Queue: 4 jobs
Job 1
Amino acid sequence: MCAARRPDHEAGNAALELVILGPALLFLIGLVIAFGRTSTAQNAVSDAAEDAARQASLQLDPADAVAAARASAQAALAQDGLHCGPRITVDVNGSGELPGFQAPVGQPAVVSATVTCVVSLSSIIVPGLPGSDTLTATVTSPLDPYRAR
């Protein structure tokens, strides 16, 4: 007995299927990579905003809070290996009944840090994918109500 042979009218179908399905599979792989990169970058931006808010809440005056928040956010993003380039912004806003650091001792107040980072996606060659994505995260941290401000 010999092995079963495919009929001649099916010869070359495997190559045709590969030509049709190959680009679709590459497109899907590119989308998965882009989604993974964006998801990882969003987590890094959220962590940087959390660090920035915490560092800002430990300072005694608004100028020191802004400087500490910016330095902390940039260090956190660098540690995570996320390169925002020159387009990273860190905004610190105080709120409460009176703006954050001006609240009297004993009155609750908070400080918020917003980190915005533009992440490049240009190294992923997927048709229709934007060249960059802007990621933003805001975190609020309480100020100690019983410390001198």
Note: Residues 107 and 145 are 5 Å apart (CA to CA).
Job 2
Amino acid sequence: MAVVTTQTLRMVFRTEGGTSFTISLDNPRNNLTAQEIEAVMDLIIAKNVFLTPGGALASKRDIQIVDRTTNDLYDPS
């Protein structure tokens, strides 16, 4: 049995069609700043890296670092 904590960086964009598009990255660097993330998001938008069903990425919508703790209560023998 183990308790495991993980982090996920979620960068949420608004598309030209008004829908949301999320890029999730596991285990972001501990000292990552909002300014660094915003700069990367701006670059992704400027370079038109992703084309989604809602169209190209148009703007930044949200940035989240999600902490998740899992408590594994059963380990088969």
Note: Residues 2-72 form one domain.
Job 3
Amino acid sequence: MNTELRENKIHGTSAYPYTQYFVGPVRHQFQYPVHWHEEIEIIYVKEGNLDLYIDGQSFVGRAGEVFFVNSKELHYMGSEDGMVQYCTMLFPLTFISFLSEDALEIKLMRPLRMGTQQFPRVITDKTMQKRLVEILERMIALNHEMKNSNQFETRILLLQMMQIMYTEGCFRENKRTKTNTFEKKLLAYIQAHYTEKMSLTELGNRFHMSGKYLSRYFKEHFSITFIQYVQHLRLVYAKELLLGTDLSVLEVALQAGFSSVNYFNRLFKEVYQTSPLQYKKEQLQQEKEGLKLDGERKSLHGN
């Protein structure tokens, strides 16, 4: 199990290391808990309000606003009513970097990769917003179906965005070389031990503070309770076990850290609106139908 609070999801492929996601509206409260990853993340709010936390700062993203998450920054997104619609695009800086020792590489690309320069937190200037959103909409439409042949245009669009931002002086010096050290250690420890029995008192003792203070700190800094965060990690791991193993629901519940299969079933249904067993059946059926469709496409093309 990962000992860092690093998002386990693979973004894109080695052949095409870019990916995008569309979220909403889900029509109920949600939060994607705090995490970090190596890639740059662009968050484009299309409709509604999106609550964001990026490297210690909180924002309310509104329709048309564009946010940036730099590599390895702790962040989360959520909504009180679930009526928000937003897109996220992730890519490593190496995807748009250069091997040549030219001025662009020396003044911008290398400092960004090294972390001495950073993307701005948010673009609120209306004129610039409009220009960037036009590019983002083209990029989203282009990658509606992820194809390796999209790479040239996607890179060009990303570089066009960066050109606009660089010309307008948006990139900033990173004056914080060690950010969120305590938070990363705290979250990394929880992620390494969430399948075990864990209490706020025990966690507080490990980090030399009271469980009560730690509970308040967690809620204030991450907008989620300690229990909710542990439940999220256990549910995500349980889904992986359901789809990737032949374990029974009872075995999945215990292996993911739940003390009771009845509690696991109830919580799983509350969060995902279906039972663990039904979820597994539906996902496997969708995968089976997808493979069948791929086979039909190949036969139609004579492959």
Note: The longest strand covers residues 40-47.
Job 4
Amino acid sequence: MKHQHSFQDPVYVVDGLRTPQLKATANPGPFSASDMAVFAARQLLLKMPFSAHDIDEVIIGCVMPDASEANIARQIALRTGCSEQTPAWTVQRNCASGLQAIDSGMNSIRTGRSELVMVGGTEVMSRAPLLWNNAMRSWLSEWFGIRSKGLKRIQQYSAQALRLRTQFFKPVFSLLKGLKDPIAGLSMGQTAEILASRFNISRAEMDQYALLSHQRLSQAIADGLLEHEITPVYDHNNHYFEHDTGVRKDSNLEQLARLKPVFDRHYGAVTAGNSAQISDGSSILILASDSVVKKYHLPVLGKLIDCHWQGLAPEEMGLGPAYAIPPLLHKYNLKLSDIDYWEINEAFSAQVLACKKALNDDEFCQQELGLGKKLGDIPIQRLNVNGGGISLGHPVGASGSRIVLHLLKLLKQQTFHSSEQSFRGIASLCIGGGQGGAILIEK
């Protein structure tokens, strides 16, 4: 029997681990999405004083699992060693799927349904399925529908074979489909161009921010700041990966400036260099109620306070954090200055910079958010301080849980390695389709 809880009860993050984020190349990556999650989950559970059988529930975010990974959360749960009686379910909210898993786990604990929940996200974009187009699917349905016998069967097969056309073999790239909004008819990159135009963000600003992302991640790796966050992964060819592979230590503004715009070739400024990388990765966290923390004498990485979701126009989906953050601050009577560190997922340089400018703009805050005045400026020295999606990559199902994990680890590091006592953080993402999500956490 689970304890009765209220929505005021604390939900703790015991700990978390992630895999390195591997930049997608021309070939499919060495791991499936469930492989990546199992690497992180198994190593995380080895650190715990309880067994996998003690977990009440498993919730995982994933956008494009392999065809053999239906309800991928259940596969991860069983492969990790959870009991067959442990329920597991998969959530999908595009780029914020990992954050949705955390929010769902938090609510499961607060409603008393669970006490100990494994949550997170996983994505292997390099293995995004290739699909047949509708013409080929129709042809195949007719081919496999032939049931005649003898000569008639041969005749029907022959006739059907003559209907086959070369254009039937044109594949549908699910990754490209997923990166385009079907309602607005725009790719995510085109929505970033819209924000760049609206907020007068120059190509130079975008490239400068992209360079900063690589410099920050390079420095974090050199300083060993990610060592307690990442667990190495090993493939079947005895290769191992212990760091994020997308970082470019030698990146500079001259190189970035030479890249051509991708989404508006004539007038655009969004390039591959100032956009998030396509990558593979997973991040897993353990959530617990106060009673379970006491029962097992668990260490506590941080506390989840609340999460807020907000919709907006799909054409400007990158502004999602600018819409999701203010209600969260208002609910807890907080100002921007009350937040010690911020993680805003770097889908595009233009998108992060647009969110910063929007929250520091009187007209936007008054007309779009209904506020009396602007919220203010998020200090760049407090935002994505160890890099983000541009240098790390953005495995869509995993990014939401990765930024929460990193923010918690960052707050803990600041406690032990800085004279400044950092206490509170917000992690936020824009979401394809026109949504934003934000979560408030405390050390």
Note: The chain has a mean pLDDT of 93.
